[in-house]
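dude i think i finally got it to work??
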Amino acid sequence: MRSKAVYLLRKITIPVISLTIFLNDIIILLSAQYFFHHFIPVSVTTLQKILDMTKRAFIDILVTILEIIAPSHVRITTENATIPKHTFRVNSKKNIIESSLEQCSISICNHQIYTDWVFLWWIAYTGKLGGRVYIMLKKSLESVPLLGYGMQNFKFIFMNRKWLHDRTTLASRLGEIDADARGQGPLNGKEPVSTDTDGCAQWSTSIGSLNNPSWPYNLILFPEGTNFTDNTKGKSKAYGAKVGKATFDHVLLPHSTGLRHCIKTLKPSLSVIYDTTIGYSGVSSDKYAESQYGLKSIFLESKYPKLVDIHIRAFKVDDIPIDDEESFDEWLYKVWKEKDDLLDRYYRVGTFNHDSSLQHTIIGDFKISRVEACLALLCPIVTTILFWKFVLSFFLG
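look at this
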């Protein structure tokens, strides 16, 4: 009886607390975005820096909420052959994980649960890129009340999932991101050198003056396109049979068209492709992380991964055959086959680190700096105090 009461209490309080923190902070971020967009005349560069601050604050909010309701440890394993040792490290003074990531990169990853992208965004945060992350989302999310406005200001890329339309969208958005990263884009006051037949701006491919500010980026992509579940695995098998490709046990067949287009468009500024593989403790090879650690399980039932394993390796852009569609498709299939083998071993031994002489592993908490976490909690706390003060004064006179 007591355990049932505790469960019901948690079922009510955790979502309420999480939603209160989230909505309070989001309203402040959106208000700041709207205020500077419409009432304070600032330069394009200053406005972008402010929007980047709100973007970084957004991941601060999400990580702070998850740290409270689903505190996890993170174990990061990197390959020494492609990522310098100690790229990821634990700051003993601040007790947080920090990194030295390349400033212009694409991160690709397997997709198991809805919060995968939060972990990838947090990885960018550790490398001081929390405000320079770009994510591809379904077009319908652009119209979500409040959040849609914020995501538009974040300059996230909204896709129809119809390549005829998405190709132009990608070319326009990624072209600007690439040009800005090289100091040759609109954030540096530059104009396109021409416009192609599809109406997409063509930017100078040269490197801007050292005096021009550059704008780094981390583009997060899930080539599988959806979560790994029993249903999507079945669809992946059907698609594999149709195109004559063997499917995998722990990942879905990846889609290569969008990723190849992204790499080609960003190539003038792109430093590296980070291939990330995520594994969750408590998930066996015959189970699905989505069924164990879905949003309902995390927020209502206190079921969450106590340890999140993240394996990262890097590919140099020049080593990827992006000029030939068939070769690129074969390259990505090989990457996903290796990812599937990596996960197969992970489910058997419980770690991605199989040779300490070839790999570097650290472990720490999934969290942000204490100062930023306190700021994320400050507004909801003040609002809650004022609310209850009003309620008590109303009833008690």
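The first helix runs from residue 2 to 38.
im so relieved honestly
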